[in-house]
Design goal:
This protein is α/β, with parallel strands linked by helices. Helices cover 31% and strands 15% of the residues.
Length: 331
């Protein structure tokens, strides 16, 4: 089984949750932590943070892509003169999950963070002549096509026949398959982190643990993330609310999000190994996540349904927002 820790955004506490999870279950279940893509290495690495907080409880794997700038992965790669290749990430995923340990993956930011932004050469919004050619990013940012015929002249006594309606974009009939997204990424189309997770789910049993803040705005952010996961056929292991307890936010997410497992992780200060170890006494006391972490299945054959199966860095720097995390108690 693979457990993917997905945030409702950046700096919501994914790294602290990952470390607490490893410290909680590492002594009884063989676990391995992996952050495939990380940015912000000049300020520190989330992988190093997890290793410092719980490295004796699980195997800590190197990032596949590691960049210096603390920005979105697609931009960090562009600034480094590189491109994130989905095929390389999936190859590393296959290699990591082939081991004896259950894989715990931490994403970079939120579910819809872009990993590849288009053709990989400069700003994809810039036309060859230097002017803007419109927004060419894939769903959900695709703009409707412009009308091909000019507007009628005010002096015309008869209105011209209306232009045929443009076809509906692909997302009106559901999300495109992740396989198509991977192929499109190779052809220069935008590729979201969600596309990568769906591809992983096609190769192994996978479930997502959503991490959200407890503060104002978390209901909307969490419900949107849950909706986007379910629309892609991805399993939801539960929600972790990170921060001061908020009973009403928890109730709303449980009711409107249809989530049975909602865990809470209070503010940890100071953020050190001893504090994380103390937090494990209260984190997931009922053991809701244990069955998922223990689950092991065979790799599915081609054509099998989503999630039916289980079983050196390429960039130039580290993890998103790591500097802020090292300076403060949240991650």
């Amino acid at each position: 089984m693979t457990l993917v820790i997905v945030g409702t955004g950046t700096d919501v506490g994914k790294t602290v949750v990952a470390a607490t999870l490893l410290a909680r279950y590492g002594p009884e279940i063989p676990l391995a932590y992996w952050k495939p893509v990380a940015t912000g290495a000049r300020d520190g690495r989330d992988t190093a943070t997890v290793e410092a907080l719980a490295g004796d409880r699980a195997a800590i794997l190197a990032e596949s892509y590691l960049f210096e700038e603390p920005v979105s992965p697609h931009l960090a790669a562009r600034l480094a003169g590189r491109r994130i290749e989905p095929a390389a990430l999936l190859a590393d995923f296959d290699r990591h999950r082939a081991g004896a340990r259950t894989l715990v993956i931490e994403t970079a930011g939120g579910l819809l963070v872009p990993l590849a932004d288009g053709d990989g050469h400069g700003d994809p919004r810039e036309a060859p002549g230097g002017g803007s050619s419109g927004d060419h990013r894939s769903w959900p940012f695709r703009q409707p096509p412009e009308a091909s015929s000019p507007p009628p002249s005010p002096s015309s006594s008869l209105s011209p026949p209306p232009s045929p309606s443009p076809p509906l974009p692909a997302w009106h009939s559901g999300f495109a398959s992740a396989a198509a997204a991977t192929e499109a990424a190779g052809a220069g189309t935008a590729y979201l982190q969600a596309d990568l997770i769906v591809e992983m789910a096609r190769r192994a049993a996978l479930s997502c643990l959503v991490v959200a803040r407890t503060t104002l705005g978390t209901i909307n952010h969490t419900l949107l993330t849950l909706e986007a996961l379910r629309a892609r056929g991805l399993g939801v292991a539960g929600v972790v609310l990170d921060g001061p307890p908020n009973r009403e936010n928890r109730r709303a997410i449980e009711r409107f999000g249809g989530v049975e497992t909602i865990l809470e992780l209070p503010h940890l200060a100071p953020l050190d190994r001893e504090e994380v170890a103390a937090a494990t006494r209260h984190f997931d006391r009922a053991g809701h996540l244990a069955p998922l972490l223990r689950l092991r299945r065979q790799v599915p054959g081609q054509g099998d349904s989503l999630g039916q199966g289980s079983r050196g860095s390429r960039g130039g720097g580290g993890s998103q927002g790591s500097g802020r995390r090292h300076r403060g108690p949240r991650a």
